[in-house]
Design goal:
The complex is a heterodimer of chains A (366) and B (628). By secondary structure, chain A is α/β, with parallel strands linked by helices. Chain A is 34% helix and 23% strand. Chain A starts with a strand and ends in an 8-residue tail after the last strand. The chains are: A alpha/beta (366), B alpha/beta (628). Chains A and B meet through helix 4, helix 5, strand 8, strand 9 and helix 6 of A and helix 6, helix 7 and helix 9 of B.
Chain lengths: 366, 628
């Protein structure tokens, strides 16, 4: 049993995902779906519209606990009732996960992994992580853990994501004031033995994330300076000017702290995680070649932020190439638009299924 | 490096050689004032908001920076810096005495608290990791300046031979290998996706804490290239930076542990204000000449405040002036033209346009008419105004003084039968610089007359926060550089300075994104609104107005219990310089706690930088403002 790599990664998109799900999961022996009760109704798509129709599925719906507001509580109640009605016949549980500790430290990933350890004791043939409404701090450690469990127990591990170009509910997020290593993705960063390693930083640029970028850059520079910054920008994108707008937004960083040329920018498809994955892999390999000669070690640090599908590409690269990931967690949300009186889960604009580990990877002819 | 103002923190300077080009000795002198030797024999807790200069001090005293400085003493600026280090007992006869290493508190150290073990084990892991990293940091600093580690000697305390043997002090390479092994073992536990159980932990060989601080006394180092005088004996200094990132229980444990007098290693704990207990902070604030010994009866620690409020304005201005000079010296375009920031900002006081002046004259006439004062009395009021003020200031002051006199004149009875008593000649009223500032602020709000210009106001706007100064100065320097490149006069007029600074302050406040930042903005808006009303009152009751909200000190004593949603909001407002607390402020025979606005909110909203003027209120008003 083995897992995906940059040479071989089985994935479907769009309607193919639905076809695959409808064909495959009813015949799978025992499936665990880990999903999230997100703020956007889209997060309910896979558990309610797809997996509720299957009988051999256990569903664990993570409820990410952040600072509560009256509107968030109301949305939470509506979404919970909706999922309960749709999936009530299945073995389904809502599981609260605290994202932030009392002192402001991020603990979501660690807490989620501890809870999931209990779920895996049931023994599943298929583990599905629905990343649609999950925060990165919870999702990425869960995916890493699921792959480890899958490799150990010979379970197939799937990643699903649904996304829409327009949001149903407008949100203003509030970030933590500390940059932290993603749980399970620190690798050897911070060890004395790697202190001389050259750092290449690959942040994912997104709108309004200047403060997060500053925190991450400062954290990375705290022991030794960052050798090079190669930001990832979404292109092609639904809004063709999005990449340019982002470059303008971060102009001060480019010419200031980062001291970074626009030639360093990596362009990757806004709604194709494999494009982000492949772009990072190509860059890391090229860099490895360069650094073989002077015998100096170099490490690429990834920083997911903003557009979710791009972040999943980063996740794939981090797992495949064992790269460290540094990020800033969102610690609360404020809703800036009216909330709908009833839940309507619409067809998503983008759907992806990625087989992370499982039997097909053992077939060398595929 | 084209524009060092664009480097937002000293961490971003790649190597010590480029760092010393921009470091000023003034913050170091201010930091070490008093008994410098006490900073190396007990715990020093350094408290300040982000950007107040904690990390700059730490980077300056780090061993590689000191060596880089000693190797380049040809420059006068470098000599000044070396003298400052000498005065602070970091050097003796131009030779280093201290081997300092800064240890950042990273998320992995904080995450030890999340491990599923007993408190004792978690504290043990924490101590082991800090000590192992400090040891490795010291050795790395030595190696970085070209010392052959195999030739150093680690001098252990007397009567600690057994413990010294356990950490291999006799063999420097084995000493480092052991520290690395400890670090890696703890690191593996912290970063594991699922940590090992407590029983599994016992078998991993980490059952005892790595105790280096109680064993090591000094390092004996062979001659270092570029440093005269042969072998050096160096006392190690561990600087734990950003200690507020620790869990509060971890912070208390580290604080208690490092206060132990048995530890011979020098140690500093640098933290944001919110990590320190309110009691300790209050004590320090009430003795603003910090650098004094702490409040414990054994005097075994020092609490050092990086920002001290209004006590030291002149010294702070001198410090930032020196910093600005050094930064500009690194910009060839400006250096060649001999540009100095304070000269470029020394603009002539602005005056209102003729049409605005007419409007103001009308307003004064209306005030005079309303007052029903005789011409003689009005002339007398005008005579109190000093001669040096501009025409518009004179008019604004006249208006204020008329309103003041109206309030002082008893109201006549509407149906009085007797004729009003004749006006008596008044005692002259004092019109000082603060009232002139108050008049200027009224003109700023009424006619947009520039108020925020000159180097002094720029320094005041940074609220004793060096990083904030560099940010604000950076935006002005950008404009100056553009003018120089275009072949124009580099000096910025008052209007340009005023609008650049206000835009920068507003932009920064808008971009605040830290926990509870939305509520902090609401709190600021509430205080600003109240202060504006007071500042713009026609009679300018507080001369140049208010920039603080005062509540009775008694209410503050119950803050932790009764503060409700304001407690976490204030925590971050203090941490990010949005607000400073001035407790125990005596006024009107009452004791107050002042919630003083920081430099940026003052700048963004047209208030005074002078401290002391406040609006009275209650804790409940503040709580209500954040819960709206």
């Amino acid at each position: 049993m083995t897992r995906f790599s940059s040479d071989s990664c089985f994935a479907q998109r769009g309607k193919d995902v639905l076809e695959f799900a409808r064909d495959y999961f009813p015949s799978a022996e025992k499936t665990l779906l880990i999903s999230t009760l997100g703020i956007q109704p889209q997060s309910l798509y896979f558990p309610t519209e797809i997996f509720s129709r299957f009988s051999n599925v256990d569903i664990r719906v993570i409820v990410e606990k952040r600072r509560e507001t009256a509107l968030l509580t109301e949305i939470g109640r509506l979404h919970r009732d909706y999922v309960q009605n749709a999936c009530g016949k299945l073995d389904m549980q809502f599981v609260d996960i605290d994202i932030v500790a009392d002192d402001g430290a991020t603990t979501g990933g660690r807490n989620a992994v501890i809870r999931a350890t209990e779920w895996y004791k049931q023994g599943y043939t298929d583990i599905v992580i629905d990343t649609t409404g999950m925060s990165r701090g919870v999702c990425f450690p869960l995916v890493q853990q699921a792959i480890e469990v899958g490799l150990k127990t010979k379970a197939n591990v799937h990643l699903l994501v649904a996304s829409s170009d327009a949001r149903c509910i407008d949100l203003i997020s509030e970030s933590s004031d500390r940059a932290e290593w993603m749980h399970g993705f620190q690798r050897s960063m911070g060890l004395d033995s790697t202190a001389d390693t050259l750092k290449l930083w690959v942040p994912q640029l997104s709108e309004g994330a200047s403060r997060q970028m500053e925190l991450m850059y400062r954290a990375l520079s705290s022991s030794s300076s960052v050798a090079e910054v190669c930001p990832i920008v979404p292109f092609p994108s639904r809004n063709a000017r999005r990449g340019d707008v982002l470059l303008f937004e971060f102009e001060r960083d480019f010419h200031g702290d980062w001291d970074c040329s626009h030639l360093n920018v990596i362009y990757a498809h806004e709604s194709n995680p494999l494009d982000v994955f492949n772009s990072i892999c190509k860059m890391v390999r090229a860099r490895e070649e360069v650094f073989t000669a002077p015998e100096q070690k170099a490490v690429t640090v990834l920083s997911p932020c903003g557009w979710r599908i791009g972040s999943l590409g980063m996740l794939l690269a981090a797992i495949d190439l064992e790269l460290p990931m540094l990020y800033v967690e969102t610690i609360s949300y404020n809703i800036s638009s009216p909330i709908p009186s009833k839940v309507e889960v619409q067809e998503p604009d983008h759907l992806w299924h990625i087989l992370l580990a499982g039997a097909p990877y053992e077939n060398s002819q595929l | 490096m084209d524009n060092p103002f664009k480097k937002r923190a000293t961490e971003y300077f790649e190597d010590p050689a480029s760092l010393i080009l921009v470091l000023s000795p003034e913050p170091l002198r201010r930091f070490f004032e008093g008994n410098a030797s006490a900073y190396f024999d007990r715990l020093v807790t350094v408290v300040g908001t982000p950007g107040s200069g904690k990390t700059s001090i730490a980077r300056l005293v780090e061993f590689d920076t000191v060596i880089a400085l000693l190797r380049s003493l040809h420059s006068k600026d470098h000599k000044d810096l070396a003298h400052a280090l000498d005065d602070c007992e970091m050097l003796a006869d131009s030779r280093p005495k201290i081997l300092a290493c800064r240890l950042s508190t990273t998320s992995d150290i904080r995450n030890i608290w999340e491990l599923p073990y007993s408190v004792k084990i978690r504290h043990g892991l924490l101590r082991s990791l800090i000590q192992a990293r400090a040891v490795l940091g010291w050795l790395r600093k030595l190696e970085g300046v070209g010392v052959d580690l195999a030739r150093i000697r680690i001098i252990a305390r007397e009567q600690s031979e057994v413990q010294a043997g356990l950490i291999h002090t006799a063999d420097p390479l084995a000493f480092r290998a052991h520290a690395r092994a400890v670090e890696e073992k703890v690191f593996k536990i912290i970063t594991a996706l699922v940590p090992p159980s407590e029983t599994e932990l016992a078998t991993s060989g980490l059952e005892t804490t790595y105790e280096a601080f109680q064993i090591i006394e000094s390092f004996s180092v062979p001659e270092i290239a570029g440093i005269q005088g042969g072998e050096l004996t160096l006392r190690p200094l561990c600087i734990v930076d950003d200690a507020h990132e620790l869990h509060p229980d971890q912070y208390s444990e580290v604080d208690l542990w490092l206060k132990n007098r048995e530890i011979k290693v020098a140690r500093w704990l640098m933290t944001r204000v919110d990590a320190v207990s309110p009691e300790a902070l209050r004590t320090a604030l009430q003795t603003p000449e910090s650098g004094q010994f702490g409040s414990t009866k054994d005097r075994d620690w020092i609490l050092k405040l990086m920002q001290r409020g209004s006590t030291d304005k002149r010294a702070y201005r001198a410090t930032v002036k020196d910093i600005a000079r050094r930064y500009i010296d690194q910009m060839p375009v400006l250096r060649r033209r001999g540009v100095q920031l304070e000269n470029c900002l020394a603009a002539a006081p602005p005056e209102l346009a003729a049409s605005q002046l007419k409007d103001l004259e009308k307003a004064v006439l209306i005030a005079a008419k309303t007052s029903s004062f005789s011409q003689e009395r009005l002339d007398q009021i005008r005579s109190w105004i000093p001669s040096g003020v501009s025409t518009d200031e004179k008019l604004a002051l006249t208006r204020i003084l008329i309103h003041r006199e109206i309030r002082r004149t008893p109201q006549a009875d509407l149906f009085a039968t007797e004729a009003p008593a004749p006006e008596t000649l008044l005692e002259p009223r004092n019109v000082g610089s603060q009232l002139i500032n108050g008049a200027d602020l009224q003109l700023f709000h009424e006619f947009g007359k520039p108020y925020y210009y000159s180097f002094e106001r720029l320094a005041d706007a940074s609220g004793e926060n060096i990083e904030q100064f560099i940010h604000l100065a950076g935006v002005l320097v950008d404009q100056i550089e553009t003018r120089v490149v275009r072949g124009r006069n580099p000096n910025l007029d008052a209007k340009a300075q005023n609008s650049i600074l206000i835009d920068a302050a507003k932009g920064t406040i808008r971009s605040w994104n830290f926990p509870h930042s939305a509520e902090v903005r609401r709190l600021i808006d509430f205080i600003v609104e109240r202060c504006k009303q007071r500042t713009l009152a026609p009679n300018a009751p507080l001369d140049d107005g208010a920039n603080a909200f005062g509540i009775p000190q008694g209410e503050m004593e119950r803050f932790q219990k009764d503060g409700g949603k304001l407690v976490p909001v204030l925590h971050y407002a203090l941490a990010y310089n949005a607000i400073t607390l001035n407790e125990g402020y005596e006024c009107k025979r009452k004791t107050w706690c002042l919630f003083q606005l920081g430099g940026l909110p003052i700048l963004a909203n047209g208030l005074t930088f002078s401290k002391g003027g406040f609006c009275e209120g209650a804790l409940s008003d503040l709580i209500e403002s954040v819960t709206k």
